[in-house]
Amino acid sequence: MSPSSSRGLFITLEGIDGAGKSSQFDAVVDALRGLGREVVATREPGGTPLGERLRELLLREPMSTSTEALLVFAARQEHVLRVIEPALLLGHDVVCDRFTDATLAYQGAGKGIPRDRLEALAHWVHPGLQPDLTLLLDVPAEVASKRLQAQGREPDRFERESTEFFSRVRQQYLELAREQPGRWCVVDASQDPQSVRLQLMDHIKKHL
Ligand code: TMP
Q1: What does each C-alpha distance from 88 to 5, 11, 74, 93 come to in angstroms?
Q2: CB of 144 sitting under 6 A from ligand 1
Q3: How far, CA to CA in Å, does 23 sit from each of 20, 55, 80, 137?
Q4: Is 168 exposed, middle or buried (0-12, 13-18, 19+ CB in 10 A)?
Q5: pLDDT class for 196, splitting at 50, 70, 90?
Q6: CB 72 less than 6 A from any atom of ligand 1
Q7: Which of 22, 26, 115, 184 has the maximum number of C-beta atoms within 10 A of its C-beta?
């Protein structure tokens, strides 16, 4: 297969746990496919067989914060080399549920790892690669926490974090969005899912 003459679009979805990202992710992927585009739908941590095994460890196994950050980037390295870059080179769109912005928000602002250390790892793992469009589902931490409780399932290691933790993560996302307004679109995810979906699609269509 020869690379397509134009690279695909790299779109990421971000938001704190409980923002409603998973159902919107499916809607975004379906809508792009409905427009006739080739879409690779993937997620982080995960997206490759090794990445999915690392995801299980990250979500369940107690570990230090630095181990956590390094495992996130180890999974990401596999994902970038085996899935994301090859798909973009073939001209396919890649829609990814979280990417490096999640690391800056969760392991950085949430857990206190200095941003420059995380950015050095990002530069090592994916030099020159960043999303073309990042959709932030923004919701107050209190609202997200109520949504998670309403799901009534066993929370994973991240979902067990405090409301203060998720407030820091949210603020970091908003700060990143302010720093690069051309890449980020912030959508108020406390609205009903249908209006959130329509706004996401508006933003995406502007980037096509
Ligand atoms: P998900 O539930 O959105 O699939 O994400 C799994 C968890 O992984 C979520 O709580 C956020 C966390 N995470 C990080 O802490 N750092 C990262 O870099 C990524 C990609 C996810």
Answers
A1: 11, 11, 20, 6
A2: no
A3: 6, 20, 24, 11
A4: buried
A5: very high
A6: yes
A7: 184
- Amino acid letter for position 97: D
Distance separating alpha carbons of residues 12 and 203, to the nearest angstrom: 12
Q: Give the ligand 1 atom nearest the CA of 110.
A: 15
Does ligand 1 lie within 6 Å of residue 176's CB atom?
no
Q: Which pTM does this prediction carry?
A: 0.97
In the reported structure, the alpha carbon of residue 189 is separated from the centroid of ligand 1 by a whole-number distance in angstroms of 18
Beta bridge partners of 113: none
What structural domains does the chain harbor?
A: 10-207 (3.40.50.300)
3-state DSSP call for residue 138? strand
Q: Is the CB of 103 under 6 A from ligand 1?
A: yes
The pLDDT of 26-37, averaged and rounded, is 95
The CA-based dihedral angle spanning residues 117, 93, 47, 192, taken in that order and rounded to the nearest 10 degrees: 90
In the beta sheet, which residues pair with residue 39?
A: 93
What per-residue confidence (pLDDT) applies to 207?
87
* Averaged pLDDT score across all residues of the chain: 96
pLDDT the model gives residue 1: 46
Instruction: Tell me the pLDDT tens digit for each residue of 52-95.
Output: 999 999 999 999 999 999 999 999 999 999 999 999 999 999 99
1 C-alpha to ligand 1 centroid (Å): 33
Q: Are 108 and 54 in contact (CB under 8 A)?
A: no
By C-alpha distance, which of 82, 83, 59 is closest to 72? 59
